[in-house]
Amino acid sequence: MATPVDGEGQPSLNGTIPDPQTKKLTDLPTELLEHILCFPVLKHVDICNVSCCCKRLHDVCHGRGKVWGHQYKLRWPRLQRFYRQNESCDWLREYKTRHRVGIQIRRTVESISKRFFTEVPCVGQVLGDSFAEIESLGMPEHFCEDELLFILNSDKRKSLTLKYYAKKILYFLRQQNILKSLKNFLEQPTEQQSALEGAVLVDQYCNPLADVTLDSISAQLDEITEKVKKMLRIKNPSHPSLRIAQGNCSVVEDFELQRQVICALNSVLYEQLQYKGNECDYYNPLNSYIHQVDFPEILYLQGVKLLNNFQIILFCGIFSLIFLVIVQVLLRRTGIPISLSILYMTLAQRLGVQLEPVNFPNHFLLRWCQKPTGTEDIYDFVYIDAFGKGKQLTAKECEYLIGHQVTADYYSAISTTEVLLRMVGNLLNIGKRGEGNEKSYQLLRDSLDLYLTINPDNVQYLLLQARLYFHLGIWPEKVLDILQHIQALDPSQHGAVGYLVQHTLEHIQHKKHPVTPEVKRRSAPEHLEVQYSVGLIMKHKRSGYNCVIYGWDPKCTMSPEWISTMRVHQLSNGANQPFYNVLVQDGTCRYAAQENLEPHSAPLEIGHPEVGRYFSEFADTYYVANEELQTRYPEDMDETLCTVREFYHRLTPSAGNQEEAPTTDQNNQQAMSM
Question: pTM of the full predicted structure?
């Protein structure tokens, strides 16, 4: 046997002789290495570790390469729409930036509850300082929004407080972007402003968390336009409207051909698609929106606040069941005159017929000129009532709609800006008529923001906005700016302005010296009669509603007027018993006597928008109080756990009775279904 030369063929430590032809991982082609490193189980930490092994793997994992691009797309798929296909990008830098933004956003959101929980709860709370912190990060807005959506889409039952504030921040950030778009829209020349685009912006601002886009709305209108063209093709195969392409602004000049378009449009909208005016719920704000909303709601009328003079009238009881499913004008095919008119006018324009909006009092109309040359004689127009199934009216017949005569000025065409002011004005009136709950305050605040963006010098609405913010205890610095603007516009308002300035300054001073919240311990002698604790899911014995406790008092602390109105003295223990603050399944907050509450036999989640303000998690049979609520009620969570073990675990069959378990589980499931 030949003797090896220069160490060739020397056995290794394990006794094997290495093959000089053996290939290493790094000898593989770059494309194959990239394919291996893009395997889904590998995370960004794994890629970092691999890239540190040697220069070869470090080069394969370079920032602009396929590996980091795959990691970025795998972790944040929603962000792909912000990049062009096959775009050359430093994916490692993008990954680091997005990761850093996520940490900062989460840290900011987590800090909000600690800073704002101790303030007096108010409807429509606006966390302006935290919003400013998010904006000051200087990071791409789509990164911030993506992290907030990531928080909202995490485990449904956990991180409830984090989701509660993330939702508020996302609401605000989207509204700021929409306001910028609205301002840009208003700066366009009047002839370039589309009533449809303006209506969509109003819709988006009032529903920033909904997926509302001009493209999606236009696509639905394109489908309706094609249906009208199909109808026209049957009546007149050579009609010029059939040759109008999408986005083309051609006009059909012949009046007979225009009449054919209007007839076909009426047939499709009101006969085929069954569009109609919403006479049953005329004042619902969603009649003014273009998009789809599913919005189950039962309104509990606790107080109607007249913000013009701060008179507060308290009511109690179930107010009305508004809707189980509310959808927008296009899907629900119902609306009020102005929303249906915008839809009708846009469709007619796409088919070559020019209609003009008319700001008729109490009933929005469209007008259709019957003369070949421009005219302002009100009798040269046919007036179309889109709310009344496209009925065509003369000037005299229009007055029958409102029951009295009006001057010729009310028959004039108005601009797109005036259309938006009318639409937002409708929302404002609905907000002022609201029930004093969070949704009505939010609608009032949003519609005021919109109106003053369009018409920033309206003293009446500036004063209403200042009063609203003052009443809700939000943005006192902004209240002072608004009041200063009012004083400059109308010095005669000095009385109302002076009053609000004085009390706003007091509020600012009060915020600098916050009051330490009261800590309630169950072990205190005055609290021994308190049977229930925060986080327990209860049922009201008389009203039957489901709720969760988020606070309690050893005795009723409400005013004598409230006690008299609610007939508390008719209770067996009257006001001299513990009362509980509860979040109710129907979205209301109530104050319930202990004798009227009992633990729910089959606990279920409470779908209340304020749950996240007080609780961090739903644990199947109870809610876990967040850190701030536990600070106020430090002994309650232990009591809640004891109650849960005692009440619900004894309902669970023991190991010795396992054959009975399916029956019990089935009964519990049936109870939850009921």
Answer: 0.77
